[in-house]
Amino acid sequence: MTSLSLRSAETREPARGSGKGLGVLVAILFVAVAGLGLLAYQFLQRTRAVERQLASVSVKTDEATALARQATDRAVAAEAAARTAAEARRLAETQTADARQQADAALQEASRARETAARSQVEADAIRKKAEAEVNRLEAALGQIAETRHTALGLVMNLGSDHLKFEFDKAELRPEDRELLSRVAGILMTSHDYTVSVNGHTDDVGSEAYNQG
After folding, report:
1. Is 140 among the domain residues?
2. CA–CA distance, 150 with 156 (Å, rounded to integer)
3. Which of 43, 128, 162, 206 lies 20 to 30 Å from 62 when distance is taken between CA atoms?
């Protein structure tokens, strides 16, 4: 009986020692799990912080990219505006130069036209004075032969009823009339570019049929 009791006591003591070891193990596992949970929580927090930082950096990057794109667009627009302004300036300068050349050419042409007009006026005045002098000379020369006057139609010389008479039923000029016409012809032959018209009438001696025959 005594020996059996001793074996039973020995068998129970190891059971108590095993329970303590299990409790320690459980405590260690709990601490380990708690530590792992804390580490996991800290890691999660750091991960979330990093994600927030990355998101903030991404937003800032997007904003910076948008600003850079806007700046690039403004730069491109400014360059295009500058090119347009430069082209407009070059076009305006070209048009101004062309207009200046045309104005200079017009002034030169006007100056030449004025010079030509002045020369033409001088020539016309000279021709008019020469013509007037010639008419005055003819008027004076013819006036020594018979009455001569200056009219709108030109010089009119009136030989009168005593000149250029024909004898009855004859067509020959009298010697004094031939001399008169010779003097008139001599004066007229000294001038050129004149037209001479002769107007007169016959006598009323004889019938009309006879005078027209």
Report:
1. no
2. 6
3. 43
On whether the CB atoms of residues 149 and 156 are closer than 8 A, the answer is yes
Q: Does 212 reside within a domain?
A: no
pLDDT tens digit sequence for 13-68: 444 555 667 777 777 777 777 777 777 788 888 888 888 888 888 888 888 888 88
- Do residues 74 and 80 lie in contact, with contact meaning Cβ atoms separated by under 8 Å? no
Residue range of the domain that includes 149: 145-201
10 Å Cβ neighbour count for 173? 15
**Residue among 162, 157, 160 nearest 183 (CA):** 157
- Calculate helix-pair angle for 2-143, 175-188, nearest 10 degrees: 150
**Residue 170 maps to a domain:** yes
Residue written as token pair 């001479």: 196
Q: How many structural domains is the chain composed of?
A: 1
Q: Report whether pLDDT(119) > 90.
A: yes
Q: How far apart are the first and last CA of the chain?
A: 214
- Note whether 164 and 173 are within 8 A (CB): yes
